[in-house]
Structure formats: C-alpha cells, structure tokens
Amino acid sequence: MLIHGGCHCGNIRFSLPWFPAPAEIVARVCACSFCTKHGNVWASRPESHLDVAIRDADRVKHYEFGTRTAQFHVCATCGIVPLVTSRIGGKTYAVVNANTFSENSIPLRRVPAILDDESETARLARRARDWIGRVTFRTQSPA
Predict the structure, then answer these.
(1) Which of 4, 5, 14, 53 has its CA 20 to 30 A from that of 106?
(2) CA 59 to CA 33: how far, in whole Å?
(3) CB 124: neighbour CB atoms within 10 A?
(4) What is the pLDDT of residue 140?
(5) How many CA atoms lie within 13 A of 57 on its CB side?
(6) How far apart are the first and last CA of the chain?
(7) H/E element, 129
(8) Distance between CA atoms of 128 and 33, rounded to whole angstroms?
(9) How confident is the model over 38-89, as pLDDT tens digits?
C-alpha cells in the first residue's frame, strides 16, 4: 500500500510505501506541548522510503525546540506539520503526521509517547531505530 499525505494546501506532500498493507497503524501521540497544541500523531515505517515533494520551499518553515535535534516542517500557508526530520550521523530520519494521511480508511492505534525524561543520546538512538531512514526531498521552484 502506498500512503499519501501532506499539508492542507498541498504545498508539502509525501508518499510512504507500507507493505504489507497494515490492518492498523500504530501512531504515537506525543505529549509535548507543541504536538499537543497541533494535534500531531506520529507514524513511521523504518524499513520504508519517504518521498517528500515541496511545491514552494519558501513557504516551508522549520521549527526546533528543546534539544534542537528535530526539525518540524511547517507549511507557512496552512499551518500544518506533515513531518519531522532529524539528522543523525549525517543521515536524515523522519516521521510523518498520521493526521495528514489522505487515506482515511486505515485504522490508527494511538499510543501515548511521553519522552520528557529521555536523554538526548537515547532520543537519537530511538529515532535512528524507529524513524524512516530513507528520506528524499524534491523541491519545485515557485512559478
């Protein structure tokens, strides 16, 4: 199954192969204040490849907080956060916001993710293990 998703206006879009087709997807509900306020729910398929297409890079803003080891990709037009990336050992890892999936028929099993007491070393190791490790960005220039 190929999962498509993106921001509300379509400026940031992604596709993520998920094989075999899942009966449900485990989605992590982060308890940090940023994710709580935005309703972000994160999913990943570590062995898959995430393809991200950006229509207008000037309308994508990046937000970092806390340890500054992750970048939230925020669409400046519609305000949606479809993905987060983290650079670890020279490699980009990502998770996608399951609330931005185009396919609404996939059941989500929402599980709490409370990471406040996680050390930075443990956090980066978890991301390298659990996040999508093959990420491609394609950007189109504004017309």
Answers:
(1) 53
(2) 24
(3) 19
(4) 79
(5) 6
(6) 32
(7) helix 120-130
(8) 23
(9) 999 999 999 999 999 999 999 999 999 888 999 999 999 999 999 999 999 9
